[in-house]
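Retro notes
What went well: the complex prediction finally ran end to end.
Inputs used:
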Amino acid sequence: MELEARLDDIRRFAEENNVDVSAQLAEIEARAAELRRDLYANLPPKDILQLARNPKRPSTLDYIQLLCEEWVELHGDRLFGDDLALVGGLARLGDHPVVIMGHQKGRDTKDNIQRNFGMPQPEGYRKALRLMDHANHFQLPIIALIDTPGAHAGVDAEQRGQGEAIARNLQHMFSYEVPILCAVIGEGGSGGALAIGVGNRMLMFEYAVYSVISPDSCSVILWRDKKHIEQAANALKITARDLKQLGIVDEIIPEPPGGAHRDPQRAAANLKEALLRHLDELLTLDGPTRRTQRYEKFRAMARFQEI
Amino acid sequence: MDLIEWFKDRRKNGRLTKEQRQREIADGLWTKCVSCAALHYTKDFQLNWCVCPACGHHERVGAPERIPQLVDPDSWVSTDDHLLANDPLGFNDIKSYPERLAQAREKTGLSDAIVTGLATLEGRPIALGVMDFRFMGGSMGSVVGERITRLVERATAERRAAILVCASGGARMQEGVLSLVQMARTSAALQNHRSQRQLFVSVLTNPTTGGVTASFAMLGDIILAEPKATIGFAGRRVIEQTLRQKLPEGFQTSEFLLKHGFVDRIVERAQLRPTLARILRLHGVGQVQAYRPAPQASIAQDQQ
């Protein structure tokens, strides 16, 4: 980044003084791109965590705009209210009408307050459930984009049954016959992420994270201070690469150098290609087979020994 | 000095370690209620279901004590005790995960945080899982998830009612996302069970929190809770930090959940077995049934 600022300085200086440095500049730029590639190819988990939480990182609505040809947002859980931290509706992806939904973080402070920093209340999960029921009823594939620090923790959320709302989604997602595609686009925060994360396929962006507990909280609980976030981030295996190895993630979606926020169009194009490819595969199967496939996929997710 | 004073003295002078105080229940002649400090003869206390006769406080009970309270004598056959935890992440904090596991096994004599098995309850066939909070806070990792999944699958196949007695702090973070997905796996098995019109009763005991609350605990066709148990999704401290204020009295208790419509009944421990028996009876569990086809998937029905 520093290098880029210097390059801009040189360019300005050259223009002002009418000196042709374009050849040298191109060389330096190429070198910078290469360096960035190397740097980002081997980022430690704590840096990936920073990228996943970058406030400029595209969230669900940004991707919906970039992925979909048509989009009609639908609101409300029909029970209590409309949660702006979890958005969804009807859309067209390629040739396919779909129901697409996801966690929505705010784009600025005001937006973030409205959207509760992407942390849904129970009514958010019940809106998702209502949309998924709708999708299954009308045989529309479900696409779920995951980007949340976690489900909201508060008195109101407990009163309205945050645990029940998440549990109900998990159960129902195993009953659907339509294809379900999930993608972690930013932060996959624990139960709040899993509540829309039961799919036939799990995709994950290169610099997204998915974790049972935030490294911050893990540090406090296990080390009893906030100084061990880096160790916690390493120990928890939260990166796409680790989770692919553990069999949780099916495919890693590459990001442009420097992260999705540097080139959202390209990130979205990569995601769209993968979504359409998996969707085409799943559409060749019949409904009960898709349901069984989802069950078998999760059935295999455990590591233990039998003695 | 009378006996009670002698006990008080022993505590005041710090001659009892925390471990020893806990052992008063297992080895000691006397047991002190942690709620009202009344002393009870341990045998009487156990005969009273580990409920304080003075104040009604429901002391935590481990799986080995709980199971005989619920099942018919000599009917219990444990399942999947041969499944043991791995260390899939190579997890290390202050202690390594294998060290923590070894300590928990030593402390409890159990192999993981749930004991599962098949039994009868007043003659009716059940598949029972009982969690044990003493084993790493009753946390759910691969083994807990696998044991529950196998138990429920077996219950579905053998037309048994599934009963899960919950006591858990949530997911076992030492297994990372592998522990998180156990919420989904157990819910999947219960969805199948339900789709075959088979009964699942969950019993919430102190404490039931985190990932267990956000999965099978809240998926009971019938949900029972013991009095004054802590039940919730987010931890109390987490909420206090978010809100920066003290939480109301009675927040996240069984009574709170009953009031807000998330549990069916609060049942005292002594009434748990008869209540479960009645529920099983009213659902005809174990009776030869008239043919009731399992429901087809919703899409097929909608097309008809």
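What we learned: Chain B touches chain A through 65 residues (CB under 8 Å).
What to try next: split runs per interface for comparison.
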